């Protein structure tokens, strides 16, 4: 009878300690930091420019603003004001976000330049 009682007690103690051990493993796994992703700077396009050429702030020459803004404003029905403000923003920031809409986070200057009313200055 004493051996059965001892076995039952050991079983109960083991069951109580098991969640504590798993909890400690979960805490250890949660506190380890994942390595930060590194940008790949070796990727180039077919014309030997890096993929992010013209996207990051200051990466364009003023003469490259025209074609970038033409692409940026290609799908709007308000082409004239879009091109005007895009070229103005590109001249100041020397970057134009990729695509025809959005993606402004890649060019902080382009994204943060606001009108007097607080709206976005750059298309």
Please describe what this structure looks like:
It is a single chain. The protein has 123 residues and is an all-alpha fold. The protein has a domain at 62-112. 47% of the residues lie in helices and 0% in strands. It contains 4 helices and no strands. Belongs to the GASA family. This is Gibberellin-regulated protein. InterPro entries: GASA.
Helices and strands in order:
Blueprint: H1 2-31, H2 65-72, H3 79-93, H4 108-112
Helix pairs in contact: 2-3
Family: Belongs to the GASA family.
Signal peptide: 1-24
Organism: Arachis hypogaea
Descriptive labels:
mainly alpha, rod-shaped, 47% helix, 0% strand, 123 residues
Quick synopsis:
The chain has 123 residues and is mainly alpha-helical. It is built from four helices and no strands. The radius of gyration is 29 Å and the shape is rod-shaped.
Quaternary state of this entry equals: single chain
Return the string of H and E elements: HHHH
In percent, how helical is the residue content? 40-55%
- What's the rounded overall pLDDT mean? 76
Largest sheet: none
Q: In terms of structural class, how would the helical and strand content be classed?
A: mainly alpha
Low-confidence runs (pLDDT<50, min 5 residues)? 41-49
What spatial form do the alpha-carbon principal axes imply?
rod-shaped
Rg (C-alpha, Å):
29 Å
Number of helices: 4
What is the strand content? Answer: under 5%
User: N- to C-terminal separation?
Assistant: 83 Å
The total strand number stands at 0
Family: Belongs to the GASA family.
Pfam families: GASA (PF02704)
Keywords: Signal
InterPro entries: GASA (IPR003854)
